[in-house]
Amino acid sequence: MSSRQLVLLKIIVFISCLLPLAWLMYALLLDQLGANPIEVIIRRIGEWGLQLLLITLCMTPLRDVVQQPWPIQIRRMLGLFAFFYVCLHFVSYLWLEQFFDWPEIVRDIIKRPFITVGMLAVLGLLPLAFTSTRKAQRRLGKRWKRLHQLVYPVSVFAVVHFFWLVKADLLKPAIYSLCLLALLGYRIYKHRLTRSG
Ligand code: HEM
Q: What is the pTM (predicted TM-score) of this model?
């Protein structure tokens, strides 16, 4: 892929990642989010965060399939967009659901296990986002790769968070779990293959 094509791909990915947010704003302005818009906003943004997290994890296997560097070259942008949506999800919860009532928020984090696990996922994402720059990558050297393996427990926490909050229909969290299992399984398989070879 030429550098011009890569720039074009990055622009397409950037715009595509913003489309869900544009849709949400549009639906909000037209009052089309149903009877409980706050729930829809929190849930939709959370789901996009999870989807982007999983899409980011798809980039390494995709690179191995296409044998080209471009999936890795757009991985950071996808990861940062996942972080962006997760932050937005968290802020929507703090603002729209809890009205920044800090004692109540602390109580909620301790009391509701799915919130506790979600919180762990957000905390795990923070060092990844702050060390996502090329400068941090150079400075941390081999430790950078180690640190960024935090994305695996973070993704597990995110899926558990979803499983824990649904009461009846487990289909969606089950699908996301299967996707994550396949993505983690691929990495374990590859690791074993390189060690034995
Ligand atoms: C990596 C971090 C996180 C991810 C990927 C994530 C993802 C999700 C997903 C996929 C849903 C369900 C969406 C649906 O039902 O379609 C959800 C719901 C929710 N999340 Fe998160 N979440 C994260 C962190 C958090 C945190 C830190 C909080 C609050 C402290 C939180 C609060 C909530 C709430 C209140 C709901 C809606 C529950 C309900 O309507 O019953 N999430 N989240």
A: 0.95
